[in-house]
Amino acid sequence: MARVEADLRALYERADRFHFSDPSMRSLHQRVGTAIESENSPEALEEAYRKALRRYFTGFDVQTRAQLRDLDKRLSELAQAQLNFHAERNVAVKRLENIGEMLGLLDEAMA
What we know:
The chain is built from three helices and no strands. By secondary structure, the chain is mainly α.
């Protein structure tokens, strides 16, 4: 088996782990699979497949990186909100303690 054929088979097998929602990509992937099975993969088909995979996965790479940036930003905002809530809670607890002390002193003074 030639190196190009081995590379194509490796690309195909790796890509086969993904679900292609794009009908043209799915069709091209199936055609390449058939060509590999028949051991007859024309060079033009191989080149078209490599280029299509590059476009397809480059788009997903950009999309997924943007998604991660958005999630990281949202997680950071959530962490800050959680920190703020804890600080607010601590203030409320301290206020309640001070109010309790004041009410205790008033009870003693009025007794």
